[in-house]
Write a structure and sequence with these properties.
The protein is of the alpha/beta class and 364 residues long. It is built from 17 helices and 7 strands. The strands form 2 sheets. It has a 5-stranded mixed β-sheet, covered by helices on one side. A two-stranded antiparallel ribbon has the order 1-2. Helix 5 packs across helix 7.
Length: 364
């Protein structure tokens, strides 16, 4: 073999033989010690978590609603209309929420500068050119972080389950994720009812499962996966599978994204809002059986359970326990669950938006 490798060169063959002999004579024994998990797992998680809380170095201004985008394309001074200005701020707010609920001052400036750079005609006539945009965006974030529940209840819940740091991090009580049942038990304590939260979800949602599925039929990849799975199942398996599938696809009927609420497999969520992380590798298995789940907030595992049902109700409850306002990109779905399915009301609740009432009329 050596002759074949070094054909025509006796010198190289001899040199290689000597090298092999030296390796055989000098035996080195290595003893490997296991590295504690926290030394390599936790720092990596923290680095990812920190990175995902910050805006990217180059923030891309998202597209605006058609009416606003048309005015901007025509170089109209939209800042002079409070209605148009509000819509622009709302879109910027939603885009920033993809990364953090607690932007730094530098990030506010970064975003409004990007806006002015793309649409120079929106510049303020006085000052630095963007201060009014900066203040409007800042006020929007402050308003959206308004409390969901009474301050005394907030304090008690935070003492029991942990606190949200000033930068949006979640410091959970204890070192291990809690069982999901503790979250809904806490909300049941805050909002007492003759029927507990889980039963209300089961009873209230079961009656609309067929219509939810009908409304999303053929409109998404998830609906296609569900349809294929359904053909493979026995009749007695269908009720549970239908329930899970409808619960997962509920955001679609409000034109909201499922992956803002539920992630599957290795797609770990770094959202600052409560999200459900499914332990299985694909949606078909998540529909077919009760897979392990965890609820994550800011990249931290808050609690663990089994099945989509437990994940959704636990993530919903986390909004109350940690005093979080619903994110704009999932507000319709969560408001529908709260007000219509679980029958939870708050002092000062406004009337349901028309977009939600129209959907309710289709479902009931």
């Amino acid at each position: 073999m050596i002759a074949f490798l070094f054909s025509g060169s006796f010198k190289k063959q001899a040199k290689f033989n000597k090298f092999v002999k030296e390796l055989k004579d000098d035996v080195v024994t290595l003893t490997l010690q296991p590295v504690p998990e926290e030394l390599y797992v936790q720092p990596l998680a923290e680095e990812r978590n920190q990175a995902n809380r910050r805006l990217p170095a180059v923030f891309v201004i998202p597209p605006f609603p058609r009416d606003i985008q048309t005015r901007l394309d025509n170089k109209e001074a939209c800042q002079k209309s409070s209605r148009d200005r509000h819509k622009i701020i709302r879109v910027l707010h939603e885009a920033m929420l993809e990364y953090t609920m607690y932007p730094t001052n530098a990030e506010y400036v970064q975003v409004v500068k990007a806006l002015i750079m793309k649409y120079p005609f929106l510049i303020d006539m006085e000052g630095n050119g963007y201060d009014t945009w900066h203040q409007s965006l800042k006020r929007k974030f402050k308003a959206e972080r308004a409390p969901l529940i009474h301050n005394d209840e907030v304090k008690r819940s935070k003492e029991k389950f942990g606190n949200r740091g000033s930068r949006g991090s979640t410091e959970t009580a204890g070192t291990c994720p809690r069982p999901v049942s503790e979250l809904w038990e806490e909300v049941d304590r805050i909002h007492p009812s003759a029927v507990n939260l889980c039963h209300r979800l089961k009873e209230g949602f079961t009656c609309i499962v067929p219509k939810v599925i009908k409304l999303v039929e053929g409109k998404s990849t998830l609906a296609k996966i569900y349809s294929e799975l359904r053909e493979e199942l026995l009749a007695e398996q269908l009720p549970e599978v239908d329930f899970r599938a409808a619960l997962v696809m509920l955001p679609l009927i409000f034109k909201e994204k499922v992956d803002h609420f539920i992630s599957v497999g290795q797609r770990v969520s770094w959202s600052p809002y409560p999200t459900v992380q499914l332990g299985d590798s694909d949606w078909k298995m998540a529909f077919a059986r009760k897979v392990p789940i965890s609820v994550r907030v800011d990249g931290v595992d808050l609690c663990q359970g089994t099945g989509v049902e437990e994940g959704v109700i636990a993530a919903f409850c986390a909004y109350f326990v940690f005093n979080l306002a619903y994110p704009p990109y999932l507000k319709k779905t969560l408001t529908f669950l709260q007000r219509t399915i679980l029958n939870i009301t708050e002092v000062g609740d406004k009337a349901l938006p028309v977009t939600i009432t129209r959907t309710i009329n289709l479902l009931f």
